[in-house]
Amino acid sequence: SDLHASRLLPAAWIEAVVERANSLKPDLILITGDLVDGTPALRSLDVAPLRALTARLGVFAIPGNHEYYASYPEWLSAFAGLGLPMLLNSHVLVRDKGHALVIAGTTDRAAERIGEAMPDIRAALAGAPADAVRLLLAHQPRGAEKNAAAGVDLQLSGHTHGGQVLGLHFITGFANDGLVSGVYRIGEMQLHVSNGTGLWNGFPVRLGRPAEITEIVLRAP
């Protein structure tokens, strides 16, 4: 989550992240937005290493608010060129060993500023099997109650960077329904908020809120 490719975190850093993620030998790789800071003209070479992400059942992503700040339509084309499917109020059905897993994704609230589609959990889950486990990628954790009510089992989010600085994370909580870092129970749904893997170059500081590549193990009840 929150790679924020930029002059601060260029191609060499993204490549190291890709190598570490692949070393986990994951079944799925899921990216919950804010992959870039800047336009494709400036940052396309920095995100090129994402092409090498490898997972047995696929790699999927959603946009975060920063994708909407610079050339959003061009970024969608660029991500498609990297073989990185973006789930925009949509879902895919992943089948493995006779079972199905719904991987859904929503857009971000920042879409409003450029007239793009706002997050729509109903559209994201439309046609999804009722008996399948439903996993949702939603960049911002706030509004999780609505997703839980829609039947999501597990929501993965980022955006907060864990508050970035221990103590300041309380301020971050005010803007995100108190959802800042780690695992939360929202009704019948579990929510994981990542501290993020990178940093926005406008405030490149972490103190007591370490970056992470999160390995999540799903277990049958």
| DSSP summary, beta strand count | 8
Number of helices: 6
Q: SSE order, as H and E?
A: HEHEHEEHEHEHEE
The amount of beta strand, in percent, is 15-25%
> Strands across the major sheet, in which order?
3-4-5-6-8-7
Would you mind describing this structure in some detail?
This protein has helices at about 10-25, 40-45, 70-80, 120-125, 145-150, 170-175, and strands at about 30, 60, 90-95, 100-105, 135, 155, 180-185, 190-195. It is of the alpha/beta class and about 220 residues long. The strands form 2 sheets. A 6-stranded mixed sheet has the order 3-4-5-6-8-7. The longest helix is centred in the first third of the chain and has 13 residues, at about 10-25. About 40% of the residues are buried. The model has no long low-confidence stretch (mean pLDDT about 95).
SSE blueprint and pairings:
Layout: H1 11-23, E1 29-32, H2 40-47, E2 59-62, H3 72-81, E3 90-96, E4 99-105, H4 121-125, E5 133-137, H5 144-149, E6 154-157, H6 169-175, E7 182-186, E8 189-193
Parallel strand pairs: 1-2, 4-5, 5-6, 6-8
Antiparallel strand pairs: 3-4, 7-8
Keywords for this entry:
221 residues, alpha/beta, 6-stranded mixed sheet, 6 helices, 8 strands, globular
